[in-house]
Amino acid sequence: SGCRAVPVEGSPGAAMEAREPLRELCGTLRAVLARLREGEPGEGREPFELQRFWDTLGQTFQITSQEATKLSLAFAGTPLTSAEDCRKLSEDVQNAVLSVATVYYWLPKGQGTTLRKMVRDAAAEVVEGMIQLTEKILSAPLESLSQEQLISTGGVWEACEQVSSLPRDNQAAVAAALASCLGVVKDALEEMEHALAEGQDPYSDIMEDEELGFPGNRDTYWSEADRKLLSFCMGLMKASKACLKKVLGAVKAYGKADSPEKITQLDDLADIANEISPSVDELALSMYPPVNELAVRLNAAKLASVLKKVLEITKTSHVCPPSEEGWVQFLSDAVDHNMNKIKDFTQGQL
What we know:
Keywords: Cell cycle, Cytoplasm, Nucleus. This is CCDB1 protein. It is found in: Cytoplasm; Nucleus. Belongs to the CCNDBP1 family. One of its GO terms (cellular component) is nucleus. By secondary structure, this protein is mostly helical. The protein has two domains: 15-164, A middle domain of Talin 1, CATH 1.20.1420.10; 170-200 and 218-346, Up-down Bundle (I/LWEQ domain). It is built from 13 helices and no strands. The termini are far apart.
């Protein structure tokens, strides 16, 4: 596949030349992608209408999907595509992608940074898909439809369909972000519970003592003391999961995106909650034998401070009416309790 001109006598390069617009298209799309990734949208001069924004964004994604289909079909083997057609196709693709980016830029910061990031990621994925499709067409032999081209076309369709499942305001966006953090933390917790339950030697599947020719290596075991310390680390990990679950419930029940103040409070919650899963991962990694107690203590302290901050921000925000204050206090105490125990166990390391 690839832009092919009807061969003109005496110009064997005509078919290759016809692809030139596609090469230029690739360059333009890369520039659009770079700008999207770093770009700050404007604050829109006219009053912003959320519904109009979504309708228009949906249309631009749909048009881009159709242009991807046209482009792909034009290079599906036959009939031959002239340089003129190739130029027209490239222009249509470029216009469709520029419209996607332009409409994203309509979305003002005031609508929420979490929402904006999700819309931006979706737009960037469409542009990436289109770049990939164009590259596959350029690199394929002239008169074939490659498997890669079919896959790339499907990739653009999928990226364009995402627009229908995007959260429609910052409350929905923050709920989606929290749910995704919760999923990561659940996985990390399950993995750790599994490792601890597996018995004394988490690396038994990797290292058979006999095969290595020396007796059991202490470095791959948890001692009794290790296990006591780790039980409180697990307490912190469980508190992380409970914290995300409760905050997510509160955002769904009470979160509103109807004023700048509430939108900002939701963003603050999402920003700090985003730090939970990397902190859980770092703590989990330091829990594997040989256990370095000081590393465990430092990672636990970092996670504890992130959790305390999440609870603090929740408590002072609109998602926490008096009815929710009980669990905020309870989880805050649970974090302190586990952290104090970890400090007691690691006192000798300081």
